[in-house]
Amino acid sequence: MQDIWHQFLTNLKQTTLLEFIAVFAGIASVWFSRIENILVYPVGLVNTIIYVYLSFKFQLLGEASVNFYYTVMSIYGWILWAKRDMSSQPIVHVTKSDRKWWTYQLSFFLAFYIVIYFSLTYLKTDFFEGVIPWADAFASATAFTGMWLMTRKKLESWYWWILTNIASIPLYFVKHLAFTSVYYVVLLIMAVFGLIEWRKRAMKNS
């Protein structure tokens, strides 16, 4: 434990300004998503663009693909959340997934996990020795699923975010991105509160 703590403090001192900006933008973005505020997307774009760069730099290729995907889906979600009906009410509301939507999201997760895992296994052998295929693929596939569901305001998006955060805490720590590892601890806590908040909203909308 002492060695881990020492490594954490050493890595924390090496945190760059870019990483600080990305972390605080990410926390703000999750806060906005918890209260169903559209600012989740423009603020989140600051976070995702920076992490695309950092993920490539530290050979977290799965996470790089996730953050690029986040960037694209943030623009899509921004447009979707901004749409209004004839009475100026949002057309997308927080709802629970039915059996069909559970089938969609589980299939979505499995498809991405398999593709990312085998892609990273190949890249590890020939290009990037530092890649951790199974862990990176799991964190990435859960994040892909969570982000897609969030654009549709599905309650279950928070379950996937919780899994993403749990997987990302050790993943970034072993890559010496200690501040980002702490960031995912914060996101994990916020995701639990987000789940509670959206559960209330889903019940109200139903």
Structure description:
Helices cover 79% and strands 0% of the residues. The chain is mainly α and 206 residues long. It has one domain. Helix 2 runs antiparallel to helix 3, helix 2 runs parallel beside helix 8 and helix 5 packs antiparallel against helix 6. The longest helix has 28 residues. The termini are far apart. The mean pLDDT is 87.
Number of helices: 8
Q: Which regions have little confidence, pLDDT < 50, spanning 5+ residues?
A: none
**Order of SSEs:** HHHHHHHH
Number of strands: 0
The value of Rg in angstroms is 17 Å
Please indicate the count of domains.
1
Helical content (DSSP H or I, runs of 4+): over 70%
Q: Could you say which structural class the secondary elements and strand pairing correspond to?
A: mainly alpha
Shape descriptor reads globular
Largest sheet composition: none
| Assembly status | single chain
| Mean of residue pLDDT values | 87
Strand content: under 5%
| Cα separation of the termini | 48 Å
Give the tags:
206 residues, mainly alpha, 79% helix, 0% strand
How does the SSE layout of this entry go?
Elements: H1 2-13, H2 17-34, H3 40-57, H4 61-82, H5 99-126, H6 133-151, H7 157-173, H8 178-205
Helix pairs in contact: 2-3, 2-8, 3-4, 4-6, 5-6, 6-7, 7-8
Quick structural overview:
This protein is mainly alpha-helical. Helix content is 79%, strand content 0%. It is globular and about 55 Å long.
